Structure formats: structure tokens, C-alpha cells
């Protein structure tokens, strides 16, 4: 459990604009994929088609790398507010709290958003002073391990789809111009949630949204809060698992599979008693990469559901919207029939 100072939690005013959960279940629904098993590729494809989300075990990311980065993250979020703010304001990168983006979205969290660029990150991490080099080293070790896992998952995905070019997805993450991001989110305990909430309303931690990138690799501590939206628009809670990773299909992957895989809509609700710390690697393509359905996945006479766009075009469009908007809506091709 993350333990932070009283000063950290007192900076938040209550945010009560999260609707009730329409249909709530907590266990037995989340797909689990053991990456060490031969059936992993089949299970990954099935999970991406049905949920756009799954949990992976035997992922190969060393627990030492995870624990070290989590410790550094706890140290950062435990700093006085005036020190943390030296790593901001977010534009969109850097330290931010409550405000998510520039379009009015807010949440019960503080965060540190970093680029796939060590020189840029060095400016933001200078708040660590003499320990900045240690943070950079720990961060780099973690990102390298998680990116490797992500590429393994994407290659298993390609195999499961019977794509001849095994690295058709993973090469985009490994490209030296890959526009991948890394985010640390801290959700302090919410005193209001700890009280008897007669209306059954949740407090927003991070509002509902899809991720624009190809794939998101999430690891969090043992505190609940993450929820995903099913095809019937009901929300289910994802039980936390300290030892595993959770994988999100992003909008770009939905387009590349022509809608066969679905980009999962998800959100985080505040926790009444415990801090939640999550670490997310967003695997993105180079800015100039053209995103369109892969011809090898298109059946005979199948038409594209989406207009072709570059990752730069989609990223610019996505970040100009509210979190809950249908970001792919501007790029969908609607049949005249």
C-alpha cells in the first residue's frame, strides 16, 4: 500500500461527477493469459475481440524493476506540493494534478507524464536533485522490460491472427521514432468515499476513455479502482493484482484490425481508504506512421471502416477532445446504405 503525507491528500477538492455503475461485477470475467503457454496467442486474440482487455501472468518483467520504480514513484508523490509542481505544469507532459488535459476533464489524482525521450524527461526529473540519475536509471530499466513484454504480446497477437509478418505491430514500438509515453498516476485516499455514500455515486479518479495508441501496458498496486466497459455498456471492476500486468487495446490497433479488436473504454474510481499507484506504458507508433486496416486482415470485398490517417493527425485530434468522446468518430467511414 502506498502511504503518503496528509499534505498530499488535502490538496484535492471533491469531484462528484461520476455516474452510478450501471451493472457491476467483480470477479470471473477478466481474461487471463499465461505468456509461457502455447495457447497464449489464441487467448490474446479472443480477449482482444471480446473485451479489448486482458491480464497477463508469467510476463517476464523482473519484480525488482517493478519494485524499484514503484518506490521512486512513492518518493516523488510524497514530496511537498511546491516541489512536485517544479516538474510541471503539464503541457501535456510533466506533473499535473486534478486537471486532465485542457478540455475541462478533472479527476481525483495527480500524475507524472513523460515522453519516450530521455533528454526531455531529464528536465522534468530535475526535481529529484541528486537522486535524479537514479530515477532515470530505474525508469529506463522498467520501460525497457515492459516494452519487451509489449512486443512479445504484439507478436503473439500477429501469430494468432495468422499474419505472416510477425513484427507488423511490434516494429512500431521498437522504431527509434516511436511516439510512446509513460505515465505515473497516484490516486490518494478519498475521505468522501470512506463515508456512507447513500446515493451510490462514485468519485472520479480518471474519467472514462479509450487510449489512442496501439497498446497500453498497465501495472498497479493492490488497490481497486479500475473498471472496464463491456459491449453491453455495463461496467465491471477489475480486481487488482500486484504481480500481473493488464493490457488495453488502443484505438490505433482497433483501426489496424478494421474493428476486429476493440479499443476498451475504461475508467478509475476513487478509493475510500487506500492510495492507488499505477504505472502505464503507452506503446505508440512514429508520428509519421500511416494508420489504416492491414490488407492481410481484410477479407475478400471487405471495406475499410476507417479513413487512413497518420498517428500525428489522430493524436492531435484525440487530444483536442474530452476524455469520454468517441475519438475515432471523426475517422469512421459510414456506409450510404
Automatic annotation (TrEMBL):
Top-rank EC class of the record's enzyme: oxidoreductase
Entry keyword annotation includes Iron: yes
Keyword Translocase recorded: no
A GO MF label: gibberellin 2-beta-dioxygenase activity
UniProt cofactor(s): Fe cation
Pathway participation: Plant hormone biosynthesis; gibberellin biosynthesis; Hormone biosynthesis
Catalyzed chemical reaction(s): gibberellin A1 + 2-oxoglutarate + O2 = gibberellin A8 + succinate + CO2
Domain called Fe2OG dioxygenase: residue spans: 177-285
Alphabetic keyword roster: Dioxygenase, Iron, Metal-binding, Oxidoreductase
Coiled-coil segments on the chain, per record: none
Pfam families: 2OG-FeII_Oxy (PF03171), DIOX_N (PF14226)
InterPro entries: DIOX_N, IPNS-like_FE2OG_OXY, IPNS-like_sf, Iron_ascorbate_oxido_reductase, Oxoglu/Fe-dep_dioxygenase_dom
PROSITE patterns reported for this sequence: FE2OG_OXY
Annotated EC: 1.14.11.13
Family: Belongs to the iron/ascorbate-dependent oxidoreductase family. GA2OX subfamily.
Biological role: Catalyzes the 2-beta-hydroxylation of several biologically active gibberellins, leading to the homeostatic regulation of their endogenous level. Catabolism of gibberellins (GAs) plays a central role in plant development. Converts GA9/GA20 to GA51/GA29 and GA4/GA1 to GA34/GA8.
Protein name in UniProt: gibberellin 2beta-dioxygenase
Protein source organism: Lupinus luteus (European yellow lupine)
Lineage: Eukaryota, Viridiplantae, Streptophyta, Embryophyta, Tracheophyta
